Amino acid sequence: MTGAVKRIWPVLAVVVLAGCGIQPSAVTGAGEAPTGVAAGPTLYFVGPDGGLRPDQRRTGGLGTVPEAMSLLLTGPGEASGLRTEIAPVSMTRVGVAYGRGVIRLHVPLTADDVTALGTDQLVCTALGVHVQSGGSQSTKVQVRFTQPAPDSDRRRSCPLME
Amino acid sequence: MTGRSWLRGLRARLLVAFVLVTVLGAGAAAWSSAGSASRALVATTEQRITETAADRVGAVAPELVYPPDQGALDRLRAAVGGNTLVTYRGMRSAGGSRTGLVTGSLRSAVRDRNRPVTQRITAHGRPWLLVGMPVMITAPDGERTPSGIEVYSVRDLSGVERRIDGLAGSAVATAALALPPAVLLALLAARSVLRPVRELRDTARRLAAGDLDARSPAPGADELGELTATVNEMAESVQSSMDAMRRMQADARRFAADVSHELRTPLSTLTAVMEVLATAADRMEPDDRESAQMAITETRRLVTLVEDLMEVSRFDAGTARLRAEEVDAAGAVRDCLRARGWLDRVELEAPEGAVLRLDRRRLDVMVANLVGNALRHGEPPVRVRVLASRRQVRIEVADSGPGLPGDVLPHVFDRFYKADAARTRTPGSGLGLAIALENARLHGGDLTADTAEGGGARFVLRLPRDLEDL
């Protein structure tokens, strides 16, 4: 063999060996960290000044949107100094459906049972839990009442989170 | 043919070059595609593993008690799967036997970057993927802070490595598939190059052997075609100059033959006149007699010269004929010496019985030339030996003079060659040795000159005994 050929073989061997198998690597970052742990959900009530007030409950875990909605419908309690603009109901179960970029709340209320501020309470509480469990902040909320209302299809967002 | 010289051949070199280029090219292409495919495979596998782990953590996280107790950590670990380690401050929950592989650099990277990190390591002879991620707390407004819970997972990459090995194997197979076509192409290319080269070589051999009509067919307009055309032109020009030279040589020989022939008639008249002059020389005055003697001597020399010239012309023209008969060499040599009165000046050693077929007249010419030459130029004693073997008869003529100098030896048989430029006037014609050599060759024998042991010049005439009738 000629000298040139002799020089080619080692190069070839190095190339072949370098391409073989899975090589160890350094530490590299990848993707988004999971989230969702919390001491409890944050509920939104109306403060003495007539604005929305967050109220973090210590339930021991974040829980789900329906659980948070049930707590919201149950009311702020006497000692908190907060009030709610949602009429008290005996049944606190709220149906939740997730669409593309939207959360649909089926509340056991009529449009007359809530004020505009009361609707914001519903929207903000649902969005808060959604974001805390890793959801997108740009998600909108539709509030469906037991009876059809003119603006129940409106996609709403929370005024405190904009 | 040995292996090494075979490797130097054009065909082998073309073959090796073709195969190397093909295998290197195909191998590089296959290898690079296999390499990028395996890199992509590893990357997607890592991404899939990390995302799956993060999804599982994210799915179970809202249901966990926070701050977590041991039960919460165990639940999180179970959700992620085997070989997983979950820590929260001093607490830990480990499952699987490989969680010890988690490196310190991975832990610090999880704390520093607050996002999932991965690292590939090799342990126990297998590749592993380490995944580490913090669990974050997200405020309702989207702000994220670390919760202090960290999840580490160790995953075996052996399956991925096997698939990569499969890719590499198919790359090698692809490169090997390119080999047979490369060999075939190389052989075809070598044949198309080698055929004209071989024809050219054959033509050159025929030219060297003297066949000046040899030509190669021009195979086209490439470099080999140009080379062939050039060789053909060369052969053409060599042939024409050879023809011209031969014509000139023939002209020169014919001229010499014509001249000597034309000189013969006036010379015979002159010879007759000289005979008359010789008979009258006795009655002349001494001065006139000396002039007459000189004229007679020179005329005889002229006659000898013209006869020798005509003899040489006959050799050149190829018209010299051998009249062979059974002759006793010793007797013929003795007769030759006796006829010239040299028997008492020459030591002859000639045993009887060396009988062979030869031309008696030409043997006489040869012996007379050699002995006359020795008597004229060498010192006595001059020895003549006749030796007979089964195949040939050797006739040696040696003198005791100074011998032949080295620069003279190659030229002694040249025509009109004078060893001593100052001694221009010698009785010989200057053609004697040349004629002797031609005669020896005509007999199928040879005549050589060398220096004898005693230092004198020695001429050896060899005549074969198996001469056919000519």
Automatic annotation (TrEMBL), chain B:
<dbReference type="InterPro" id="IPR050428">
    <property type="entry name" value="TCS_sensor_his_kinase"/>
</dbReference>
<feature type="domain" description="Histidine kinase">
    <location>
        <begin position="258"/>
        <end position="467"/>
    </location>
</feature>
<keyword id="KW-0902">Two-component regulatory system</keyword>
<keyword id="KW-0597">Phosphoprotein</keyword>
<dbReference type="InterPro" id="IPR003594">
    <property type="entry name" value="HATPase_dom"/>
</dbReference>
<dbReference type="Pfam" id="PF00512">
    <property type="entry name" value="HisKA"/>
</dbReference>
<dbReference type="GO" id="GO:0016301">
    <property type="term" value="F:kinase activity"/>
</dbReference>
<keyword id="KW-0812">Transmembrane</keyword>
<dbReference type="InterPro" id="IPR003660">
    <property type="entry name" value="HAMP_dom"/>
</dbReference>
<keyword id="KW-0472">Membrane</keyword>
<dbReference type="InterPro" id="IPR005467">
    <property type="entry name" value="His_kinase_dom"/>
</dbReference>
<protein>
    <recommendedName>
        <fullName>histidine kinase</fullName>
        <ecNumber>2.7.13.3</ecNumber>
    </recommendedName>
</protein>
<dbReference type="InterPro" id="IPR036890">
    <property type="entry name" value="HATPase_C_sf"/>
</dbReference>
<dbReference type="Pfam" id="PF02518">
    <property type="entry name" value="HATPase_c"/>
</dbReference>
<dbReference type="Pfam" id="PF00672">
    <property type="entry name" value="HAMP"/>
</dbReference>
<keyword id="KW-1133">Transmembrane helix</keyword>
<keyword id="KW-0418">Kinase</keyword>
<keyword id="KW-0808">Transferase</keyword>
<feature type="domain" description="HAMP">
    <location>
        <begin position="191"/>
        <end position="243"/>
    </location>
</feature>
<dbReference type="InterPro" id="IPR036097">
    <property type="entry name" value="HisK_dim/P_sf"/>
</dbReference>
<dbReference type="InterPro" id="IPR004358">
    <property type="entry name" value="Sig_transdc_His_kin-like_C"/>
</dbReference>
<dbReference type="InterPro" id="IPR003661">
    <property type="entry name" value="HisK_dim/P_dom"/>
</dbReference>
